[in-house]
Amino acid sequence: MSADGRRWLAGGLALAVIAAALASTSWSEATGTDLAGRLAGPHAGHWLGQDGLGRDVLARVVCGARVSFAVAAAVVGISLVAGVAIGTIAALAGGWTDLVIVRAIDVVLAFPGLLLAIALAAVWGPGVGNVVLALSALGWTGYARLTRSEVMRLRHATFVESAEALGASPLRLALRHILPLALPALLVQATFGVSGAIVAEASLSFLGLGVPPPTPSWGAMLDEGRQFLLVAPHLVLAPGAALAATVLALQLLGDGLRDRLDVRSVERERATVP
Fold first, then answer.
1. How far apart are CA 212 and CA 247, in angstroms?
2. Is the dihedral of CA 171, 177, 140, 64 positive or negative?
């Protein structure tokens, strides 16, 4: 698929997911039970059928999208702020400070990410706040490494050294001269981070360590529906398709942003054109 085709597909999927997340579906529609219609397939009253308690699957998928995006936005926001601050300090301070921070990042990255998140969520217990903290405790490392790399690359640029010679403080150098140029790379990283956080939240919820019931979550819906997979496959297909479409849209969006914002990548592509 061409780059333009990927961008159009990503834009269409992203708009569909955002529209679903902003739909007027209420929480009562997603949590209201109707035992008479339990495990009913898709029909006029319930376009994606009903689950084991008669709850509307479409309403739960829509509300699950809100939960997933809220968790992902919080995780990426916390991780981005912490990672940028730590990476900038490491690059500008240098010496032992840089060495200690780099070794701390290496220690965190030495553990399998999802397994460490499962361990933290198991210790802290299920809940939206604990899921955000568990995923943020791991997510900052990628932003810290990227920020450190970008700051070190720009640290000795002529305009940065000129500003430093004029008396600019390290904080001013970072905020006014270095980090704005690192923003495109961080934005691309954050886009991929959102998709990763959505998958991680769904994985924790699938294991019973994420968002507690009756709050809808795509991972919890997959866990609840797998016991009815042969008699009511719509319980798994609906949240699974929503999760796959969302992650695909974010991945394609990240690819498009990388191609659009990464000047070095664009220059390399132009150099290969005959």
1. 22
2. positive
End-to-end CA distance of the chain: 21
Please report how many Cα atoms fall inside a 13 Å half-sphere around the Cα of residue 105, on the Cβ side: 22
* Core vs surface per residue 74-104: b (16+ CB within 10 A) or e: bbbebbbebbbebbbbbbbeeeeebeebeee
State residue 16's pLDDT score: 61
pLDDT digits (tens, 9 = 90+) for 83-135: 999 999 999 888 899 999 999 999 988 888 888 888 888 888 888 899 999 99
CB of 257 within 8 A of CB of 195?
no
How many Å apart are CA 246 and CA 88, to the nearest integer?
32
Q: Which two tokens stand for residue 68?
A: 């997933």
Report phi then psi at 50, rounded to 5. Answer: -130, 155
pTM to 2 decimals? 0.86
- Which burial class, exposed, middle or buried, applies to 211 when counting CB atoms under 10 A from its CB (0-12, 13-18, 19+)? buried
Please name each of the domains of the chain with its CATH number.
3-23+50-263 (1.10.3720.10)
